């Protein structure tokens, strides 16, 4: 009888130093979030469904997730069971995540024309996230969802739960009715400053529901076009923050640009600086060059990081976006384009690695220094 060679299982590589992952998507199951809503809305959902805008383009993978991310029982990896153990075994433990910032998965309620309904969903999602995620693992911190359609309702939600120690930022979708520098949103920033919470803009819902179109030229046909156009919307928000004078009015406000790439920022800042010099008489309240506001008030996350054709050019672009001050690692787990912390970047010197993978985020979110080089936070 022929012998069958049995291969030894592959050894899993583990991060030696712990890190902070600024974009871990968790899904709060619809049925569970519904239980946190007022009965008025639960009855409406039973009768008419959720009444929320749906996706308009096909994402990759399985519902946008990696093909191999489904647990053995076939459930959604971060839904259905609310599978914290799966998140631990597939991401937090092997990659030695000291802290993971939860960023949800569905922002469709921020494109709804009904701000009261959107606000109720946000409160339910925030409560569910604390109850079923952050309270069960000290490594997890949460993003506070708001109904940005109504800044007064949004500020009320920030005041309600913004002081909770597990809430580390306010989060909104990139898709919006107005650029985020508009004074319409000032009540939100006043509340962020009151609670010392950064304001995170995460790509999603561009052109969905009440939000403006996904590009300045209108709607595109395919998802690759939609994905490529997302930095356009983020550019509009960044320019709006600067030229509307938000950082002069709210000098301690920090803004995070998430999941739109990073290297486009360099030439965009060059353009903003040039235009500010020649047109500054139109916005005399803008006291500093746009690139200075970026360095002091804006942070950007890495995923999906662009890959220049050479390591030398990569290093130059890292300097051009002030990566040692402003760039934070995010994986986008468990989406199909997830960035592995082991493989995403070329080799970085120790000081720069420390800033990107830990200290920049720790400073922003006021998280403690890592407990050791070998393990993450206890819990």
From TrEMBL:
In terms of InterPro entries, this protein maps to:
ACMSD, Amidohydro-rel, Metal_Hydrolase
KW Hydrolase (keyword) present: yes
**What keywords is this UniProt entry annotated with?**
Hydrolase, Lyase
Listed Pfam families: Amidohydro_2 (PF04909)
Q: Which GO terms describe its cellular component?
A: cytoplasm
User: Key word Hydrolase present in the record?
Assistant: yes
One GO MF term attached to the UniProt entry: carboxy-lyase activity
- Tell me what this protein is called: Amidohydrolase
Q: Which organism is it from?
A: Paenibacillus naphthalenovorans
């Amino acid at each position: 009888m022929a012998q069958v060679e049995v291969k030894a299982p592959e050894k899993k590589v583990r991060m030696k130093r712990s890190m902070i992952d600024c974009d871990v998507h968790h899904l709060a199951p619809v049925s569970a979030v519904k239980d946190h809503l007022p009965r008025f809305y639960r009855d409406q959902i039973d009768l008419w469904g959720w009444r929320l805008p749906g996706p308009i383009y096909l994402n990759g993978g399985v519902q946008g997730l990696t093909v191999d991310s489904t647990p053995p029982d076939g459930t959604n990896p971060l839904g259905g069971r609310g599978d914290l153990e799966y998140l631990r075994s597939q991401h937090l433990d092997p990659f030695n995540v000291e802290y993971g910032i939860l960023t949800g998965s569905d922002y469709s309620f921020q494109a709804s024309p009904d701000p009261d309904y959107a606000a109720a969903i946000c409160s339910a999602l925030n409560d569910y996230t604390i109850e079923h995620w952050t309270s069960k693992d000290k490594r997890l911190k949460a993003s506070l969802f708001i109904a940005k359609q109504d800044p007064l309702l949004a500020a009320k939600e920030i005041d309600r739960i913004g002081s909770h120690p597990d809430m580390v930022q306010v989060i909104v979708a990139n898709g919006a009715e107005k650029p985020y520098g508009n004074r319409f949103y000032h009540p939100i920033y006043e509340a962020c400053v009151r609670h010392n919470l950064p304001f995170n803009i995460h790509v999603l819902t561009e052109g969905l529901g009440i939000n403006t179109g996904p590009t300045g030229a209108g709607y595109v046909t395919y998802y690759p076009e939609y994905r490529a156009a997302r930095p356009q919307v983020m550019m509009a928000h960044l320019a709006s923050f600067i030229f509307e004078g938000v950082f002069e009015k709210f000098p301690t406000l920090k803004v995070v640009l998430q999941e739109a790439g990073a290297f486009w920022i360099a030439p965009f800042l060059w353009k903003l600086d040039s235009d500010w010099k020649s047109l500054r008489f139109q916005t005399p309240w803008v006291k500093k060059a746009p690139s200075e506001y970026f360095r002091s008030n804006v942070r950007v996350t890495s995923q999906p990081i662009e890959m220049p054709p050479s390591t030398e050019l990569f290093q130059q672009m890292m300097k051009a976006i002030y990566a040692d001050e402003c760039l934070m690692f995010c994986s986008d787990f468990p989406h199909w384009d997830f960035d592995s912390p082991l493989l995403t970047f070329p080799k970085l010197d120790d000081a720069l690695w420390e800033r990107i993978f830990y200290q920049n985020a720790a400073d922003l979110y006021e998280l403690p220094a890592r407990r050791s080089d070998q393990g993450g936070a206890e819990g």
